[in-house]
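BUG: 3D viewer hangs when loading the predicted structure for this chain

Environment: internal workstation, default settings.
Expected: structure renders.
Actual: progress bar stalls at 90%.

Input used:
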Amino acid sequence: MNDRNEAMTMENIETKRTDDNIQLTEHFNLLEFVRSGTAITLGIDNHPPRLAVECLTHLCQTVLEPLRRRFGKIRITSGYRCDTLNAAVGGARRSQHRLGQAADIFVPSEEEGQKMFNYIRGNLPFDQLIFEHSESRKTRWIHVSIRPDMAKNRRKAWTALCR
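C-alpha cells produced before the viewer hung:
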C-alpha cells in the first residue's frame, strides 16, 4: 500500500460518519447521545466520528448499563457534542462530551440522584462524577465520564451548584 492510500484510509477511520440509529448496547442507541435541541435550532451537524462512538459504547458498557440494571430506565440529557455544539451550549473547552467519553443523566429527585451518585462512586469505574443542580431551572443531573484507558480514570467525584 502506498503512503497516499494509507493516509486516506486513516482519514476515513477518524472522520467516517455514523448512523444515528445504531445500537450501542442492549438498552442504549447512538441517537440518545447525539440528539440536541440546540444543534437542531442552530443547524449544527452533531454526528460523531467512529472513535467517539467507540468511547460512547465503552461508557454504556461500563457505567450506564450497570446503572440501568440497578435503577431502571436511564434518560440521557446530553451525550456527544461536536466542538461547535459544545461551544454553543457553554461547555468546558476540554469537555469529555467532545470525545464521546461523558453523558449527563436526568435525575428525577434529590433522593434518587444521591442514590445514583453513591452507587456509581462506590461500585463503578469513572473518570469524573458530578451531581449537578441548577437552582434557577429547578433541575438536577449527574455528569459521568470514563476514559478508554481505565488506568487513567481519576475517580474525581463532587457536587456542583450551577446557575
